[in-house]
Amino acid sequence: MEEYIVTGMTCAACQAHVEKAVSKLDDVENVSVSLLTNSMTVEGSASAEAVIKAVEEAGYGASLQNQEKRSSSFSDRIAGREESLKDKETPKLVKRLIYSAIWLLILMYITMGHNMLGFPVPFFFEHNHLGLSFTQALISLTVMYINRAFFISGFKSLKKLSPNMDTLVALGSGVSFGWSLYIVYKMTYMVTNGVTNAELMDIYHNGLYFEASAMIPALITVGKTLEAFSKGKTTDALKNLMKMAPKTAVVLKDDREITVSIDEVKEGDVFVVRPGESIPVDGVIINGEAAVDESALTGEPIPVDKSVDDTVSAATINRSGFFRARATRVGEDTTFSKIIEMVSASAASKAPIARIADRVSAVFVPSVIGIALIVCIIWTFVGLPFADALERAIAVLVISCPCALGLATPVAIMVGNGMGAKNGILFKTSESLENTGRIQIVALDKTGTVTEGKPVVTDVFAERESSENELLTVAYSLEEKSEHPLAKAVVEYCESNKTLKSEVTDFKALPGNGLEGYLGDQKVIGGNRNFIEKSAVIGYDLIEKEKELSLVGKTPMYFAKEGRVLGMIAVWDKVKDDSAEAVRQLKNMGIEVIMLTGDNDRTAKAIGDIAGVDKVISGVLPEGKEAVIKKLKKRGRVAMVGDGINDAPALTAADIGIAIGAGTDVAIDSADVVLMNSKLDDAVSAIRLSKKTLKNIHENLFWAFAYNIILIPMAAGAYPGIEMNPMWGAAAMSLSSFSVCMNALRLNLFNIHDSGRDKPIKKRALSDINENAADSVLNETADKKVITEEKQMTKTIKVSGLMCEHCENNVKKTLEALSGIESAIVSKDTQTAEVTISAPLDEETVKKAIEEKGYGFVGIVD
Fold first, then answer.
1. What is the per-residue pLDDT for 804?
2. What is the per-residue DSSP string for 552-595?
């Protein structure tokens, strides 16, 4: 995927023309153009030269964004992105506006001050209607020249048969000037033929439109200036984020502190951070401690205490303390860099709802020109003087506004993304920002999402024939080799109790079950009750104790050696302080909340009761989460919230995947929304922000459509008794897109954490289905298959245009949403999708679904 900067676009019609021109290239799979950021992303194998040539032939300019991207430094790329977002248009437009205003004041003094109010003029203009007319023509021509950009762009696009908003302005102003010039020459002819002064004065006062020809481009420039200013404000969040990028770092070399450019820091370097300084790269503290302000990443203003072995992130600020840290991620691999990349990519992507405006914009300007011609012909035919008919046609041209249509969605998306980024909520694409608010069911992973993910050992029970030391030694030896959070709790407990350990050989981790290995020649195992009972007999007392512990939400783990149960260790993972409130707010929105866990029924229910979820699905193996999500999707739109590697398939399978607490790299790659904090209520805020942004888009689209639907007929004279001067039409047009931008900026005032105005969806998901049917889904456990036992087959679908992991996830979700497809494995390397089906595939349906997402369908093979 390549990114380009596009120049010369002024309205939604321009955007549509550029997209159409580039999409015609054979090797282009998908193209998305943003009028707001003047950028374009192109997927496919088409060369940059071919893409740029296509854009230029359409009448616009294009260049590769960060042409030296692969060779330039990280700081240069950040500077390049910052430069591309810099508001270069507003200063130019302000300059044009000032010059236009000066000349317009002179023109208005003549046309209104002198002609209507009798203001004095030089003696040689007294009763000199021809002299005044030619002076008006010269002044109007000067204003038109100052705003020549409208005419150059407008007539160039008209010549290429792809008219845009500038064409409407150029035609409206040009026709006014041309008609007025014709009247002036007519007046000259009449003078030479002895016409009376009264007749000449009547033509002078009623037949000239020079003020309109000058006022139209000037008023549109006012609107463009306001629009450019407000558009610049919508990107403030992203620009402010980029300004936080550190420029230098203090590194230790040969025991000396040296200040170097951020690009010179390498992985493994030791860097020093003093109070008040920005942390240059991601790293791990090796000496010292500090209070770190992480608001740049998480939106949380309260500093976080950091000490040895804690991680720190680039662009966060050391508020107090001194520390040394070892660099673990540098350049574009830092968390901060990925956030910038994610927010930038989301802003450049196109939301599905924008396609409505795109389709209208593509035909809007030609339609308006056609309407203006028809209006002129009809009014002339019914007997109106040609000058009046022409005036109404000009009013139709200048009042029509395709800009508002083109900006309605992207400005709201940009502000929404910025609001999310400021609060540690990152939407990967515009589509994810649009769809998050439409969620009906939220599935929560338990560990690290509902709970803190920092379990601690609370109880140790040894069997009568075993000692506590023997139990802890086996547990320590086994769990030390595991990465599971419960394992870490056992290891920390054993280390604090100075427990001895032995080397385990032939170690195996069995996801969802437990661990096994050998201490010498003796087999040792640890895990849940179901797993242990396959190899050993658990005593009645331990089972009863397990029941007691499970009822309060603790997780029991059994350990055995050579078929003999040694005892049980209970671990407690505290429910997060905000989990219950977050679940309450989700339910208040009318969203059904379900918790997924591998724990036994009693433990899962106890945690679920504390959190207040609607349903608990217990005993789910990691690979079973994906199947549960697919089953839930049959009942409504599903969001999956998780933080671990095991959650990645479920995050991908859900309609919206939400990775919490920055999670793991795998979880982040699989998610549609990334929460930098570990707070569950940020997931609620993400849904709330999405709903508000979508509402704002609907408001903008309503205004954009309503404006044109109401005012175009008014300008055409369709409403009896109402006539519109072209200058008023130009004023209305100049304010329409500005209004859309200002409405989008209102999102900056929205408090995404305020639940006071939450409105529930029309129906809870459970109320739409038979309760028994719900139970058949939700009571599935690890011992039961979640997917139906139908005869399944596999097919291979060949797809073109897969460029990245996001493309894979996008196509995977699209295919799995189709009837008869149970699962899909998509690969960008082979450009294929391996699908498991339970019913015959309809090739046309598959083809349509893939192509609607912007990818190519090649065919289906067995």
1. 66
2. TT-EEEEEEETTEEEEEEEEE-PBPTTHHHHHHHHHHTT-EEEE
Q: Among 282, 445, 573, 681, which one carries the catalytic annotation?
A: 445
Secondary element (H or E) of residue 609:
helix 601-611
Distance CA 564, CA 634 (A): 45
What letter does residue 278 receive in the DSSP assignment? Answer: B
Closest C-alpha among 34, 747, 659 to residue 416: 747
For residue 230, the one-letter residue type is: S
3-class secondary structure for 110-169? Answer: HHHHHCCCCCCCCHHHCCCHHHHHHHHHHHHHHHHHHCHHHHHHHHHHHHCCCCCHHHHH
Which residues are within 8 A (CB) of 834 and not within 5 positions of it... i.e. 6 or more apart?
Answer: 794, 795, 796, 824, 825, 826, 827
Residue 445 is among the residues annotated as catalytic for this protein: yes
- Cβ–Cβ under 8 Å, residues 508 and 524: no
10-residue stretch averages of pLDDT, the chain, 862 residues long:
82 81 87 80 87 88 67 62 70 90 89 76 79 90 92 86 83 89 86 74 76 85 77 68 83 89 90 91 92 79 86 89 91 80 70 72 84 93 88 87 76 86 84 89 88 88 85 92 85 91 89 86 90 88 88 89 91 88 91 87 87 88 80 89 76 87 60 84 93 91 86 89 79 79 87 83 44 41 36 75 73 83 78 81 86 83 72
What's the token pair of residue 236?
């403030």
In sequence order, what E strands does 610-672 have? Answer: 615-617, 638-642, 656-659
In this structure, are residues 828 and 802 in contact, taking their beta carbons and an 8 Å threshold?
yes
Question: Helix (H, G, I), strand (E, B), or coil: what is residue 384?
Answer: coil
pTM for the model stands at: 0.71
Which of 595, 281, 552, 345 minimizes the C-alpha distance to 445? 595
Q: Residue 548 corresponds to which tokens in the numbers above? A: 């007691």
Determine contact, residues 104/143, Cβ cutoff 8 Å: yes
Tell me if 185 sits within 8 A of 697, measured CB to CB.
Answer: no
Give the E-state strand segments of 12-115 in sequence order: 28-34, 39-44, 61-64
- Determine the 3-state secondary structure of 524 from DSSP: strand
Residues 6+ positions from 22 with CB-CB distance below 8 Å:
28, 31, 33, 40, 42, 51, 54, 55
- Taking residue 390's Cβ as centre, other Cβ atoms within 10 Å add up to 22
Q: Which long-range contacts (CB under 8 A, 24 or more apart) does 135-138 make?
A: 135/110, 136/107, 136/110, 136/111, 136/180, 136/208, 136/210, 136/211, 137/177, 137/180, 137/181, 137/184, 137/210
Tokens standing for residue 433: 């920002």
Cβ density class 551-572: b for 16+ within 10 Å, e for less: eebbbbbbbbbeeebbbbbbbb
- By DSSP bridging, strand 592-596 and strand 441-445 are parallel
Residue position matching structure tokens 């071919």 = 50
Interatomic CA distance for residues 550 and 557, integer angstroms:
11
What are the strands, taking DSSP E only, across 630-690? 638-642, 656-659, 673-675
- Comparing C-alpha atoms, which of 338, 322, 331, 397 is closest to residue 716? 397
Q: Which amino acid is it at 278?
A: S
Place of tokens 């003999």: 564
